[in-house]
Design brief:
The chain is α+β, with helices and mostly antiparallel strands and about 290 residues long. The protein folds into 3 domains: about 90 residues; about 50 residues, no CATH class; about 140 residues, no CATH class. The strands form 2 sheets. Strands 1-2-4-3 form a 4-stranded mixed β-sheet. It has a two-stranded antiparallel sheet with strand order 5-6. Helix 4 packs antiparallel against helix 8, helix 6 runs antiparallel to helix 7 and helix 7 runs antiparallel to helix 8.
């Protein structure tokens, strides 16, 4: 189990520079990857994205790389000799025509940037990946380790809330045993009060009791609630990702306990239902952090 929050940092040293890579992940409904790479490594963006997508399922990932020092650049400087000769010839012609003094020197020619051509060659992507990959892999390992550590902590919290949920569901089971007889007794009392001493038809009372029992029986809702709770534990025990499945189960449990409370129409059961809703909300709050 992994949390969606974590941080990892990696570093690799080269002869003339050091590369630092940091990866931060935050909660996100889907997967979002933001890259801030030096120009030297921008050709690796798709490869970096693919590595994150293969390793993680959900989260907002921010990858930042920094260069400390100067990487070796492959640059070649050349001169346009024909153009330089033209500059020199024109300069000497001006000197002779205008009667100027002095000689044309190399420093004069260096001022004409058009004479010189600087050509930069980009290293092969595979060579750049060999530079980038050690620091990036180290950051990935640290990030995953932190996400797993946070995931283990979240599992402990979820297990605690599930224990509270089981205790409250057991209370509902106990209340259910006495719920129908009490409701039938209350129905009989209300009917007698309305009749005001008139004779009560046992058959009619039985019919009303059957209708009441069907209307207030929450056995199906409680069974489905327990089924969702067991499914919750099953999902926890399986390999991830877990977040979306558990979030859906929380929604289903909340729906069932709401229906149950409405059917029961009992103040005592409603109080237990409120406690169950609180526990489910706590579960869902933690589930939001899971991958």
């Amino acid at each position: 189990m992994q949390s969606m929050t974590g941080f990892g940092r990696g570093e690799s040293a080269q002869p003339t520079f050091t590369l630092q890579v940091e990866i931060k992940s935050l909660n996100h409904r889907f997967q979002e990857i933001l890259l801030r790479l030096p120009r030297r490594y921008q050709g690796l963006e798709e490869r970096v994205r693919r590595a994150l997508q293969e390793r993680f399922h959900r989260g907002r990932f921010e990858v930042q790389a920094r260069l400390l020092g100067i990487p070796p650049e492959r640059a070649f400087l050349s001169a346009d000799l024909a153009l330089a000769e033209q500059y020199l010839r024109v300069a000497r012609h001006l000197k002779a025509t205008l009667g100027l003094s002095g000689e044309v020197t190399i420093n004069d020619l260096l001022r004409f940037r058009e004479i010189f051509n600087l050509t930069e060659t980009t290293p092969e992507l595979e060579d750049l990946w060999q530079e980038f990959e050690p620091a990036f892999s180290q950051a990935l390992e640290e990030l995953e380790a932190m996400r797993r550590q946070e995931g283990a902590y979240l599992r402990e919290i979820l297990e605690k809330h599930l224990a509270d949920l089981d205790r409250l569901l057991d209370q509902l089971e106990t209340l259910k045993k006495d719920h129908l007889p009490q409701a039938q007794k209350q129905l009989e009392t209300r009917i007698l009060k309305l009749l005001q001493g008139q004779e009560l038809d046992p058959l009619r009372l039985h019919q009303e009791a059957v209708i009441l029992a069907d209307r207030i029986d929450f056995s199906e809702e409680l069974d489905r609630l327990r089924s969702h709770r067991q499914h919750f534990s099953q999902v926890l025990s399986r390999p991830g990702p877990h977040g979306r499945k558990l979030d859906f189960l929380c929604q289903e449990m909340f729906r069932e306990i709401t229906t149950l409370a409405n059917k029961a129409a009992s103040a005592v059961i409603s109080q237990v239902a409120v406690e169950i809703k609180t526990v489910i909300e706590k579960l869902r709050e933690q589930v939001q952090n899971l991958e």
